[in-house]
Predict the structure.
Amino acid sequence: MATHKPKESIARKISRIFLPLWGIRAGLYITARHLFRKKITVQYPEQKIPIDSTYRAKLSLLFEPGTGADICISCLQCKNICPVECITIIPKVDENKKRHVGTFDVDLSKCLFCGMCEEVCPEFCIVLDPIFDYSSYSRDGLYLTVSGLRREANNAEWESMISCKEVKKRESEAKKKAKEEGEQKQ
């Protein structure tokens, strides 16, 4: 028993032929429209796009210019405030009971680059540099130790650190003085 196939209408045959051509026409139209515009492709690494000054990327641990002494006092505030716990610090205590950096490790595969560690640091030694092109083919390359984090503070950073410390010192002295005056009035 033969089954009867309904005949295809002429409009259906035409749409089956011209619908794909309509899509090709639309694609060619978009290509032609962009063909004579200014090219926006950047040939990286020869050319680089200027980065915004507020861009935060690679974490760095500053040390004193000239002497190479660590600024970090291992207060653990950056470790405690980190929301993803990517910072590991083990302080080293010398014979004068001063704390220094023993171990300072950062797992950049976890880091959110939020800048909270930078904000909470009392010594202003943690900074987020605008270096975006540090990549690694393995996760081990994203686990930075003290040697991979250390960077000498430039003169502008060093001067701003010193001035911020002086401002904080003056503010704390003013608070102490106001507290003492308040106690004397009572």
Summary: The helical segments are 10-35, 77-81, 116-120, 146-149, 155-185.
